[in-house]
Design goal:
The complex is a heterodimer of chains A (about 450) and B (about 90).
Chain A: H1 4-15, E1 21-28, H2 38-53, H3 56-67, E2 71-78, H4 81-89, H5 94-115, E3 119-126, H6 133-147, E4 152-160, E5 164-166, H7 167-183, E6 191-195, E7 216-222, H8 225-233, H9 240-269, E8 272-277, H10 290-296, H11 307-325, E9 329-330, H12 343-350, H13 356-362, E10 370-375, H14 381-397, E11 402-408, E12 415-417, E13 424-426, H15 436-439, E14 444-445
Parallel strand pairs in A: 1-2, 2-3, 3-4, 4-6, 7-8, 8-9, 10-11
Antiparallel strand pairs in A: 1-7, 4-5, 5-14, 6-11, 12-13
Chain B: E1 5-13, H1 18-28, E2 32-41, E3 44-52, H2 58-72, E4 75-80, H3 82-88
Antiparallel strand pairs in B: 1-3, 1-4, 2-3
Helix pairs in contact in B: 1-2
Amino acid sequence: MLDREEILETLRMILVERLDIRTVTLGVSLKDCASSDIDETCERIEEKLLSVGERLVSEAQALEEKYSIPIVNKRVAVTPIASIISPAVRELGEEEAKEAAVRAALALERAAEKLNVDFIGGFSALVEKGFTRGDEALIEAIPQALNSTQRVCSSVNVASTRAGINMDAVLKMGQVVKRASELDYMNCARLVTFANAPGDNPFMAGAFHGEGEGEAALNVGISGPGVVRAVLEKHSEASLGEVAEVIKRTAFKITRVGELIGRELSKRLNVSFGIVDLSLAPTPFPGDSVAKIIEAMGIERCGAPGSVAALALLVDAVKKGGTMATSYVGGLSGAFIPVSEDAGMAEAAREGAVTVDKLLAMTSVCSVGLDMVVLPAKTSASTVAGLIADEAAIGVMNNKTTGVRVLLAGREGERIELGGLLGYAYVMPVSERSCEAFVKRGGRIPSPIHGHRN
Amino acid sequence: MKKERAVITVIGEDHPGIIAAVTSACAELGINIEDLSQTVVQGLLTMTLIVDITGKELRELQRRLERVAEEQRVQIIAQHEDIFRYMHRI
């Protein structure tokens, strides 16, 4: 029989500590949509998405009701579009190829709108080793594609531990971020540049349906920084070994809910259950913050000395607890440290406690990287490229995923409202020393020796 | 048929008639109560009921309890039991 204390604990997590399922993301293969004609490709894309994704939102809503737990986002991720448009752009000139890629983005947008999903990911290219014609067309099209859509998310993988860092792609992405920001800085909230991008990540903006995936898969992103923080506050005198233990137990419980929803929703949709992503994803709501978890461990303000160690403890404990709770772990699993989406982090940035350099250091031990950081509008494309190169190096050398999602807006210290779950941010200073000569050298930084583990 | 249960949790300011209202709602829908416990701490009531919903529509029970919650000015949540089973057991 169920234990009354356990029932009340679950309810407290949901009602008070904002436990929710952050996202259910349906990955759909578009490989069979490729055609030598872009209009035909777009038609097939729309048609396939509408048929495979038709019941995603309604079935997810039925589960929200059944278990009284919010599923905040319902999303779709597709095969990287660069490979789908490749046959269609083969014979086209540069400008026409770019137009074709934008049309594919518009087809994704129409499908997302009809399916009533909040985001669709996969306007993507994997170019860690080099560019195909499709990759070039897609990357060139990113600023316009983002600017003419609301729900399309874009990601580009520029590096991997096996391939090294494609510095030509790094420079291009610096320029793409700059151009997309000049059209509207909000565009860049839907654009990530990755190293070691996983093909089963349910979180935006970096979700896409990876190369080795099947026809369709349901991936689940859990949440619950508020739950972890609340538990830690009850253990303010505990040693750090005990803190890790408490986090593990909590992560187990949070992940089990993701496992339940993933199993049941994939069964209802008749698709395979992909993975549960164990990331702690914060929101701007008070207390639902990764920064506040770090502070609950005894760091006065997130970013102070000790923050990297506290974050490392958190990420490892979340993974250990979560791994026991689900059959399939995947995606970005760890803890996210976005600045604007985490009110605790945004405040730490305002006070100067957390800086771009400190965030870089923190990304060596957590999932993703420089995330939802607003840099001054005047920041150059080469500086953005330099930051991407640094993040890629951290990812490549440590055999982990890293990414850069930065927005260029306003002046240093200015408050920028991004709205909704994206929160707000204060524009953070970044070194004005130039790295232009370095990033313009181009070529590929070779993969590290431990990338050849055979 | 596999037995299915729901957990009903009632939270709110204690006053006469809450148990009667919740249990009558269950009875009206032909739903059997298997376990019921409640505590009142400083005037705040928390009550949990485990009910058998095999062959019933959970949604119908939820709608009926929404009306009870409004009439009794308490919060009532009815959830399929699996969320508790999953969270606390392997």
